[in-house]
UniProtKB/TrEMBL annotation:
GO terms for molecular function: beta-glucosidase activity. SMART domains: Fn3_like. Residues 674-744 form the Fibronectin type III-like domain. This is Glycoside hydrolase family 3 C-terminal domain-containing protein. InterPro entries: Cellulose_Degrad_GH3, Fn3-like, GH, Glyco_hydro_3_C, Glyco_hydro_3_C_sf, Glyco_hydro_3_N, Glyco_hydro_3_N_sf, Ig-like_fold. It comes from Pelagicoccus enzymogenes. One of its GO terms (biological process) is glucan catabolic process. Gene3D superfamilies: Glycoside hydrolase family 3 C-terminal domain, Glycoside hydrolase, family 3, N-terminal domain, Immunoglobulins.
Length: 756
């Protein structure tokens, strides 16, 4: 080379030229290394502590490596930066070609690393119905992850959360295709620093998951079968993924644990290559969900050997095997025995290298320790965390106008229940200090004037089926009677009582098929003696507020019938207490809306609103009709009136947009925010269609007495097309109905138009 740098080291050369030059220099062993990963969480070395894990990682990257997994990082930001920089230095200086690694992370609700800003869980963020604010939140996560040396996050979850029994429901953005799509676009844009697909030095690659259908597990049981028909897959499950690929240029994608129509995603070329790349134009790389390549053999049993599983995954378009190449560690042998697979290997290696060049890692794979300290959990990030937590609180009931509490009229407040002092924030975090419980928030607001009285009252029962006893491990009433009585006495002698109930990260979490880790539920009520605690507090006659907190919705028809106020909060992150206190005491009006339907009981499932019309034809003999709370529902301290729906045209062609406007007015003395929701019903179609579908929404903040005109535009191709007979997607001519209101069941304005 006449002492010149090789072309792949020339930053002025095109990415494609650099990729091809580097590929021409690589041995088979070096190429195989680029589709493998090592993990800083490797449990095989965990007995030796962090030092042992790091040593195992160092030993595993002698030929280079595609990706280093640093999820759930237990180190401080400074320690994390030093560790990642040292590993990158080893790759640059001690391997033949000096290829840096991508560093993978998790950012479901903030970067999953010690001391990082903890945001509300996705189900809570979706409750804000504020995509702009959600993008700000994921911008925080992306910046903090990159500042600590990460380049990619297995985020966001775009599965439809339609079964509240599923332990991973908190990771979703809810049940609706349009809402999940909008939240997904916001999340990807936040993590990647915009929608261009050009990730700058302050952001990371977004790899949405789980592609595709994972959330539709039968019975709400993790890893169960996913019986999805092709029309539901095309029209409801896939659109959020298509949106983030084509509208936000997501550069990563994580395949699903599940199978659809009998074909596991990790071995499904029709899904990972034909659809994702050739039909949609995806330009990034596909990573495996953890250990799912070898699961093709030992779990799903579509491959007879792990070598066959490797061939199946590589041929399908699986680019990197996470977290420790449990399958692709056999790939060198597989390709030596089946040389035709090297062509598929080369395709995947090019994708990995292309991203490394686009991120500028060959020029500078290192991060600044000082920068990490400035960025991680800085004041601006804390403010974003509190704003989105506040907007994610949903008021379900306000009997007699109990809320907001008037501090000047109160002398004492009882803060009760097992979650009153809870600092739990969800399952995708690493322990940290500075988390605000509701009790902390009340004390901060109360100051010296208002007496705050606290008692736990009861516990949230430990749940687990005991095969020998055939009973659930739940705290008995006798064991907790003294504590419940104390809480009731405190409530009786206080001016107001707030009872914080719900769940824990142990009673709602990802359930593993190994190690007996459970998190899915067969019931949706409050565990243990929580319902009894609420009943007895209300019976004192003291005005009572019930706060629900946890990772899933709870069926509480007994509490709904009581004269109480009810606030629903999915885990709100580190600002939980401050946000709740501001809403309870009226500094902020609740503006959250439910991103899913809450059933009266498990027997109503499935209960999501967008089922086919015929699904709502009959009700149950022994259950009150309709859900406990409908999709999109939420109350405010303010009241809003809708008026003057005007459609620009009564007829449109398939190529025209339907433009329309309406007016919303705040007719109360409170400032507040309304979420205006637009639903579309296809009156007649060639196949049976959903009863109605959310197609647009706007969150509008109005001062007392303020009125505003809102403008909307619907595209036939995006908002009215579906998969018809013969499996062809398109827009059919005919009549459509518009419904505008404050939830899927709150119709304020109606309109009609035709596509001709």
């Amino acid at each position: 080379m006449n002492n010149q740098l090789p072309l792949y080291r020339d930053a002025s050369a095109s990415v494609e030229a650099r990729v091809e030059d580097l590929m021409s220099r690589m041995t088979l062993e070096e190429k195989v290394a680029q589709v493998q990963a090592v993990s800083l969480r490797d449990s095989t070395a965990a007995e030796e502590g962090l030092a042992g894990i790091v040593k195992a990682v160092r030993d595993g990257i002698s030929q280079g490596i595609g990706q280093i997994e640093n999820t759930f990082d237990p180190r401080s930001p400074q320690e994390s930066v030093r560790e990642v920089n040292d590993l990158q230095r080893q790759l640059l200086e001690e391997t033949r070609l000096g290829i840096p690694a991508l560093v993978g992370s998790e950012c479901a609700h903030g970067h999953a690393g010690r001391e990082s800003t903890i945001l509300p869980v996705p189900l809570a963020m979706a409750s804000s119905w504020n995509p702009e604010l959600v993008q700000e939140a994921f911008d925080v996560a992306g910046r903090e992850a990159r500042a600590r040396g990460a380049h990619e996050a297995h985020t966001p979850v775009l599965d439809l959360g339609r079964d509240p029994r599923w332990g991973r429901i908190e990771e979703t953005f809810g049940e609706d295709t349009h809402l999940v799509s909008q939240m997904g676009l916001a999340a990807v844009a936040g993590l990647q620093g915009g929608r261009s697909g050009n990730v700058d030095a302050d952001h990371i690659i977004s790899a949405p998951k789980h592609f595709a259908g994972y959330g539709q597990v039968v019975g709400g049981r993790n890893f169960a079968a996913t019986p999805i028909d092709s029309r539901t897959l095309r029209d409801e499950v896939l659109p959020p993924f298509k949106a983030v690929v084509q509208e936000a240029n997501a550069l990563g994608m994580m395949a699903s644990h599940c199978e659809v129509d009998g074909v596991p995603a990790h071995g499904n070329r029709a899904l990972l290559t034909d659809l994702l790349r050739e039909e949609w134009g995806f330009q990034g790389y596909v990573v495996s969900d953890y250990n799912d390549v070898p699961r093709l053999e030992f779990f799903q049993r579509v491959a007879e050997t792990v070598e066959d599983a490797c061939e199946m995954a590589l041929s399908a378009g699986m680019d990197v095997d996470l977290p420790v190449a449990q399958g692709y560690q056999h790939l060198l042998k597989v390709i030596q025995e089946r040389p035709h697979l090297e062509e598929h290997l080369d395709v995947s290696v090019r994708r990995v290298l292309r991203l490394k060049f686009k991120l500028g890692l060959f020029e500078n794979p290192f991060v600044d320790e000082t920068r990490a300290l400035e960025v991680v959990d800085c004041k601006a990030n804390q403010e974003v965390a509190e704003r989105i937590a506040t907007e994610s609180i949903v008021m379900l009931k306000n009997d007699g106008g109990i809320l907001p509490l008037q501090r000047e009229e109160l002398k004492s407040i009882a803060v009760l229940g097992p979650n009153a002092d809870s600092k739990q924030v969800g399952n995708y975090t690493v322990g940290r200090t500075g988390i605000s419980s509701f009790l902390d928030g009340v004390r901060a607001v109360a100051g010296d004037r208002l007496e705050v009285r606290h008692c736990k009252g009861c516990s949230i029962a430990e749940v687990g089926w005991d095969g020998a006893q055939s009973t659930l491990h739940q705290a008995s009433m006798e064991a907790e009677e003294d504590s419940i009585s104390e809480a009731v006495n405190i409530a009786a002698s206080s001016d107001v009582a707030v009872v914080c109930v719900g769940g824990t990260t142990e009673t709602s979490r990802e359930a593993f098929y190994v190690d007996g880790i459970k998190g899915d539920r067969a019931t949706l009520g409050l565990l243990g003696n929580q319902l009894e605690l609420v009943r007895r507090v209300v019976a004192t006659g003291t005005p009572t507020v019930v706060v629900l907190q946890g990772g899933r919705p709870y069926s509480i028809p007994e509490i709904e019938r009581l004269p109480v106020a009810i606030l629903n909060t999915f885990y709100l992150g580190q600002a939980n207490g401050a946000a709740l206190a501001k809403v309870v005491f009226g500094e902020e009006s609740p503006s959250g809306r439910l991103p899913l339907t809450i059933p009266r009981s498990v027997g109503q499932l499935p209960v999501y609103y967008s089922q086919k019309r015929i699904s709502f034809y009959k009700d149950y003999l022994d259950e009150e009709p309709g859900p406990l709370y409908p999709f999109g529902f939420g109350l405010s301290y303010a009241r809003f009136e809708y008026a003057d729906l005007r459609l620009q045209a009564a007829e449109i062609s398939r190529e025209e947009s339907l433009c329309f406007s309406l007016k919303v007015k705040n007719v109360s003395a409170f400032d507040g925010a309304e979420v205006v929701q637009v639903y579309l019903r296809d009156k007649y179609a060639s196949v049976v269609r959903p009863d109605k579908l959310l197609v647009a929404f706007q969150k509008v903040k109005l001062k007392a007495g303020e009125e505003r005109q809102l403008n909307f535009a619907l595209s036939p191709e995006k908002d009215m097309s579906f998969t018809g007979r013969g499996g062809v997607s398109g827009v059919e001519a005919g009549a459509f109905e518009l419904e505008v209101g404050g939830s899927s069941r709150d119709v304020r304005l109606e309109g009609r138009f035709e596509v001709v």
